[in-house]
């Protein structure tokens, strides 16, 4: 959610400088209404994103099945990823400073395919460690060669 | 010739000409710079005074014999220095092949030892750039599966030496395909029959005492004429032609301002020209050969390359036909090959093409080799419908009619077909594509849905494979179909892996993480 806020601020600032220039008269005043549109759009989109953050968090989930792991995320663009245990090359638990303050962590599963396919952000730290141990153990048990 | 020998196989030295070949450019530059500086000074010294006359006014006869002697002496000194550097560099470069590793030691002041574990080696390739080729040398490159480990390369050995070493090591490693690793499967009915199909049969691991010959069976060859035709019938070539035509047109229309515009066009010309040249270079005299370990491709105009593609490492195969090739009936086959280290970089792209341009029968032959476990007939049907089929007939499950709101042109083409062994995905209306993914090579499956698709009841299914030119993605399927596909893939993949995972090498949890 905070990254959504940061993103909004960045885009507003990036798109907003023409507005500032117009307002302070360095650019012709007549441009002002036009030039205010991009930052306004950025603010609106960002604000929406921030407001929807709680719902998006609820939409994030994972399920451990017999042979694979399911990860679901996304509100507008929903995505469910199925990762077989035997395909997991390694499991990363990473904690950003912000997450550390809340006692959370991100669990990342790496397969031979490239891309952040399965990332579970915001897992409680204890649960993240448990997941990592469990997944690694299952991964080794069902290890698949490439 | 062995240096200080630690217990183990002897250390060999590379070919003596290696430092010359590696450093010829540097030497040339240095020699040029040296001569430039020195000759000026010399001339100044001999003709007296700081004003050295321009070269036109110089009369070589005016310089005394001493001048030439000194110059010759300096040149000899330069050559002597070069020779010493060359000799020292060569002396300190050694390589060793043990049962588990290949090690290369180099460097005089900053010693460097690189090693590659033989059981992690994915492929061994031979590269022959222009200069080494003229001297009869070749470079042996080892591609390793370890993430972060850069590839080890032995440069330069003589060509026969390199080939011998390569076949010996490949035999030792046993980089054979999965064809014979499957025990009689109880579950999958069609799979057992496929074992008798083409491409199956080569022994899994050649015993060390068996003669290591160059067992290469030629499969096909791309005639250079066809390659040139295919390169010219491509988008980049069209753009290049337009640019080339535009230049004289601009000059004619506007003799004054014309040349100025040309400057802007030049980068475009160069970049498109480079693209076309690279395609030509990488496809020239392209040969596909069958070896016990899989496939070997050999190509090149100036830099001749010979690269091995072990069948077991092929993750996905894609056949596509750009629109301009349709009148000729040409297709292109590319593969995703697993796990080359990140440092391989550009070499990955080179190794992923199994057929730069070919006809349909050639494509079928290549596919049969790359996917040895699939029924020939099955493959032909999948390919035929994949490349030419339209609409919901045959084996392919396609997007429903309502997908036309998001994808009006192509929705009748996008679809998938699942058999016991593979999943085939087709796409593209103008440029036709079919991708085939063996079930046991699926890395992960994802089903995704954007808001528009949700309103229409559609979903996309991504099948993840290792990085490479082939993307297996089925967009805009009916949601129920998509869910069924994902579930079926997960099950198929689990099942196929259980069958296929007779290990090619002893299963050691440490090693198997490939």
Model description:
- The complex is a heterodimer of chains A (146) and B (514).
- With 146 residues, chain A is an alpha+beta fold.
- Chain A folds into two domains: 2-57; 61-144, Pleckstrin-homology domain (PH domain)/Phosphotyrosine-binding domain (PTB) (PH-domain like).
- Chain A has five helices and six strands, in the order αααββββαββα.
- Chain A has helices spanning 2-23, 32-35, 37-58, 97-102, 125-141, and strands spanning 61-64, 68-73, 78-84, 90-94, 104-110, 118-124.
- Chain A has a three-stranded antiparallel sheet.
- In chain A, a hairpin with a 3-residue loop joins strand 1 (61-64) and strand 2 (68-73).
- In chain A, 23% of the residues are buried.
- Chain B has 514 residues and is an alpha+beta fold.
- Helix content of chain B is 38%, strand content 24%.
- In chain B, helix 1 (18-47) packs antiparallel against helix 2, helix 6 packs antiparallel against helix 8 (258-283) and helix 7 (235-253) runs antiparallel to helix 8.
- The longest helix of chain B is centred in the first third of the chain and has 30 residues, at 18-47.
- The two termini of chain B are 36 Å apart.
- The model of chain B is unreliable at 1-5, 176-213, 340-345 and 502-514 (pLDDT under 50).
- The interface between A and B is medium-sized, with 29 and 37 residues.
- Chain B: Pfam families: bPH_2.
- Chain B: Residues 186-212, 489-514 are annotated as: Disordered.
């Amino acid at each position: 959610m905070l990254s959504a806020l940061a993103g909004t601020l960045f885009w507003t600032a990036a798109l907003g400088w023409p507005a500032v220039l117009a307002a302070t008269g360095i650019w012709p005043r007549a441009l002002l209404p036009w030039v205010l549109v991009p930052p306004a759009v950025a603010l609106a989109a960002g604000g929406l994103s921030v407001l929807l953050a709680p719902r998006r968090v609820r939409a994030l989930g994972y399920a451990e099945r017999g042979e694979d792991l399911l990860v679901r995320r996304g509100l507008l663009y929903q995505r469910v990823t199925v990762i077989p245990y035997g395909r997991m090359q390694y499991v990363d638990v990473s904690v950003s400073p912000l997450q550390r303050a809340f006692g959370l962590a991100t669990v990342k599963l790496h397969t031979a395919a490239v891309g952040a396919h399965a990332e579970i952000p915001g897992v409680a730290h204890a649960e993240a460690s448990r997941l990592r141990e469990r997944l690694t153990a299952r991964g080794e048990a069902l290890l698949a060669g490439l | 010739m062995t240096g200080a020998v630690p217990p183990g196989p002897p250390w060999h030295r590379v070919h003596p000409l290696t430092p010359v070949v590696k450093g010829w450019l540097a030497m040339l530059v240095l020699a040029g710079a040296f001569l430039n500086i020195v000759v000026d000074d010399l001339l100044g010294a001999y003709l007296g005074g700081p004003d050295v006359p321009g070269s036109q006014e110089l009369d070589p006869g005016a310089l005394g014999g001493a001048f030439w002697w000194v110059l010759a002496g300096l040149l000899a000194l330069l050559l002597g220095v070069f020779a010493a550097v060359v000799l020292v560099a060569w002396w300190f470069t050694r390589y060793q092949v043990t049962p588990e590793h290949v090690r290369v030691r180099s460097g005089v002041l900053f010693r460097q030892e690189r090693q590659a574990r033989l059981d992690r080696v994915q492929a061994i390739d031979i590269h022959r750039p222009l200069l080494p080729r003229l001297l009869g040398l070749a470079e042996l490159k080892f591609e390793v599966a370890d993430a972060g480990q850069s590839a080890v390369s032995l440069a330069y050995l003589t060509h026969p030496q390199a080939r011998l070493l390569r076949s010996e090591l490949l035999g030792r490693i046993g980089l054979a395909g999965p064809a014979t690793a499957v025990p009689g499967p109880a579950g999958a009915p069609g799979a057992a029959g496929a074992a008798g199909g083409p491409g199956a049969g080569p022994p899994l691991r050649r015993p060390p005492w068996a003669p290591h010959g160059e067992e290469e069976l030629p499969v096909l060859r791309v005639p250079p004429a066809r390659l040139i035709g295919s390169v010219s019938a491509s988008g980049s070539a069209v753009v290049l032609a337009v640019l080339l035509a535009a230049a004289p047109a601009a000059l004619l229309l506007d003799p004054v301002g014309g040349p100025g515009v040309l400057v802007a066009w030049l980068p475009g010309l160069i970049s498109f020209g480079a693209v076309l040249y690279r395609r030509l270079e990488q496809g020239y005299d392209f040969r596909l050969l069958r070896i016990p370990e899989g496939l070997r491709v050999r190509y090149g105009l100036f830099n001749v390359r010979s690269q091995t593609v072990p069948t077991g490492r092929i993750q996905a195969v894609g056949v596509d036909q750009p629109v301009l090739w349709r009148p000729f009936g040409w297709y292109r086959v590319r593969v995703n090959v697993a796990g080359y280290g990140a440092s391989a970089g550009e070499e990955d792209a080179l190794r992923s093409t199994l057929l730069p341009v070919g006809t349909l029968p050639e494509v079928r032959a290549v596919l049969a080799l790359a996917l040895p476990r699939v029924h020939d007939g099955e493959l032909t049907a999948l390919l035929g419908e994949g490349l030419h089929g339209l609409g919901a007939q045959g084996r392919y499950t396609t997007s429903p009619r309502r997908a036309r709101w998001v994808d009006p042109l192509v929705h009748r083409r996008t679809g998938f077909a699942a058999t016991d062994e593979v999943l085939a995905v087709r796409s593209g209306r103008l440029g036709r594509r079919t991708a085939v993914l063996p079930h046991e090579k699926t890395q992960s499956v994802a089903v995704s849905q954007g808001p528009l698709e949700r309103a229409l009841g559609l979903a996309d299914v991504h099948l993840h494979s290792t990085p490479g030119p082939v993307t297996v993605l089925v967009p805009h399927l009916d949601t129920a179909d998509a869910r069924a596909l994902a579930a079926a893939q997960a099950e198929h993949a689990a099942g196929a892996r259980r069958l296929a995972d007779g290990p090619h090498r002893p299963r050691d949890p440490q090693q198997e993480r490939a």
